[in-house]
Amino acid sequence: MSPTTGTATEKTTAPGVVSAAEPVPALSPATSTASAVPAPHDASPAGVRKVRSTAARFRHAVRRLPYLLVKGATKSVAIVALLLLWETAPRFGLVDRTFLPPFSEVAHAWWGLAVDGQLADNARASLTRSFGGFGLAVAVAVPLGLLIGWYRPVADLLGPLLEVFRNTAALALLPVFVLLLGIGETSKISIVVYACTWPILLNTISAVRNVDPTLLKLAKSMNLSAPRLFQKVILPASVPVMFTGIRLAGAVSILVLVAAEMIGAKAGLGYLINASQYNFAIPQMYAGIITISAIGVTFNQLLVTVERRLSSWRSPADS
Fold this sequence. Notes:
By secondary structure, this protein is an all-alpha fold. It contains twelve helices and no strands. The longest helix has 47 residues, at 45-91.
């Protein structure tokens, strides 16, 4: 064999035989399985980002938990102190417990009224009258306030009449409403409408008239029509002040109704308080008062939530 032939023989390999100079990496079972089976959906970048976002929100909530607990305790300390004072003052003889029973007795009386259904029936009657009158007042006062605040001739025409009635107390007109409309539901709802109209109306007029002039100039420079100017600038800028009047009207609707229910009513929280006083059921009387306070606070918080949603364009205030 010649040297040339021997060299050619050494470089030639049989088919299917792997040369030692060219090693082929071996595939592990895990690698082969992963290449054969597609990656699950959660392993995609979108799934990973979703998991990380959820974990980040959870960590943020955990970090804020001590702050929220401290904030809640700070807001509750005054109420807790008042209830402790209410409980201890009658028991130690600081006040006559006949006229101011301990809070535990009032809570027991409240539970008794709730169990036998008296509290629910009277609260339902009061809420129907109060919310009905409040809704009618909003439906009337908001458009009228926008009209008076936007159009000067309408303000000049109705201004003197508004000044006369805004300075007349609603309870002073209660006998007039009873004489004209009777002692039924109509007179009670009407007195609520009258009492709620003025806070909403006056605050709406003030809100429209006190819109930032810079906003109006910018809007007019964009050649907006009067309806578009009213929709895009006047209404959004008027919402905060307008809702101040609506929240005041929400409180007034309950207070005025309670006073109206003490005259000629057969159901309602005002009737419950008045009947308990006459029957010398003092714990039941305070139970009715507490119920009215709880309804007022809840209603106010509901209006605050609606206001925040309608005025979400504003920068959030530091809390």
